[in-house]
Amino acid sequence: MSTEKEVVSVLQYLDNKTILVIGAAGFLGKIFVEKILRVAPKVRKLYLLLRASGEKSASERFNDEILGKDLFKVVKEQYGSNLNDILEKVTIVNGDICLDDMGLNKLDSELEHEMVQQFDAIVNLAATTNFDERYDVALGINTLGAANALNFAKRCAKVKVFVHVSTAYVCGEKPGLIKETPYRMGETLNGATGLDINQEKKLVKEKLSQLQATGASHETITQAMKDFGHTRAKVYGWPNTYVFTKAMGEMIVGANREDMSLVIIRPSIVTSTYKEPFPGWTEGIRTIDSLAVGYGTGKLTCFLGDLNAVSDVIPADMVVNTILVSMAAQAAREKETIYH
User: Fold this and answer.
1) Cα separation of 253 and 245, whole Å?
2) 0.85 cut: is pTM over it?
3) Is 207 a catalytic residue?
């Protein structure tokens, strides 16, 4: 049983903290940023790593794709004319998790120095969640991107916790109790040997070179890289490219964390908000939402299922709360902890 001294106040933990959020433009990332701005006005600073996209700068993406969403209406109402005061705590940083050092070595040296000296925590929410994503894209974000984020965290003077958001489905399709145990480098679901992340990088490069040498069209290359990811996942027992690359992401941060306090969050199917900032906020049609929308619009009159099966879905705001509690609980503990 916990003693009163062991109980951690999440809000107190957030006071005067400087946090880097990677993947803030994603579904969970937006909800995470909104929650901190709404409940933790004493947070010192939030840095959001965003990449410029097309003609949009990172700052324009923040205004359009994050702050401009209905999700932030409660924050805007709460602060009213003082909204700019809280937004002054937010710094947008142009970077890309797929690049070495996340592209931060191209920043103004003063800003980079400031970041390296100030961060207390780094939260990596960046991912491509497409099940049949191109293998080069999924490997770049979900696996190598996680390594880039961790490597940057290790450069930071006072980071006390690195949070990596994964998925419960790294465990594949095996039945029974799923334990909160880490994946070690090279471990596979089907017992096959030879899984090596550096070798996967090499295979991707070779496959792309071969396709480009034949003069294949963009569409042909895209389909071939999707098929290649699926094939590589099946070799080692994972059902699709997404969960395979997320599993390797866990391996690479676990193997390279050294004495960094590492938290790996493994949510199941993430769906719309339950309570915060209001019930039912979602973005587009996500995962299991397609069943509800199909049924509600009359386009899906029935579907096959096991009446005894449990559908593991979790509201997005509960995932965000889990991340925040884990940060407060694990800060400076110098170990790896997994939360399903």
Assistant:
1) 12
2) yes
3) no
Residues of the chain with pLDDT under 50: 1-5
Residue 69 CA to residue 33 CA, distance in Å, equals 12
Q: Which of 47, 135, 236, 242 is catalytic?
A: 242
d(CA 97, CA 104): 9
Helical residues (DSSP H) of 88-240, grouped into ranges:
109-118, 135-138, 145-155, 197-213, 218-235
Return the closest-CA partner of residue 129 out of 201, 197, 238, 28.
28
The first and second tokens of residue 305, run together, are 């299922």
Beta bridge partner(s), residue 92: 48
pLDDT, tens digit (0-9, with 9 covering 90-100), for 230-285: 999 999 999 999 999 999 999 999 999 999 999 999 999 999 999 999 999 998 87
Half-sphere exposure of 76 (CA within 13 A, CB side): 8
CATH number of the domain encompassing residue 17: 3.40.50.720
CB atoms within 10 A of CB 161: 25
Q: Distance (Å, rounded) from C-alpha 232 to C-alpha 78? A: 49
Q: Of 336, 16, 18, which Cα lies nearest the Cα of 157? A: 18
Q: What is the pLDDT of residue 3?
A: 43
Scored b (16 or more CB within 10 A) or e, 14-43 reads beebbbbbbbbbbbbbbbbbbbbbbbbbeb
255: exposed, middle or buried (Cβ count in 10 Å: 0-12, 13-18, 19+): middle
Assigned domain for 82 exists: yes
- Count Cα neighbours of 163 within 13 Å in the Cβ-side half-sphere: 30
Going by C-alpha positions, the residue among 90, 102, 112 that lies closest to residue 43 is 90
Q: Which domain holds residue 263?
A: 10-280+312-338
Candidate list 17, 207, 226, 246, residue with the active-site label: 246
Is 5 one of the annotated active-site residues of the chain?
Answer: no
What are the backbone dihedrals phi and psi of residue 198, each rounded to the nearest 5 degrees, phi first? -65, -35
Residue 248 placed within a domain: yes
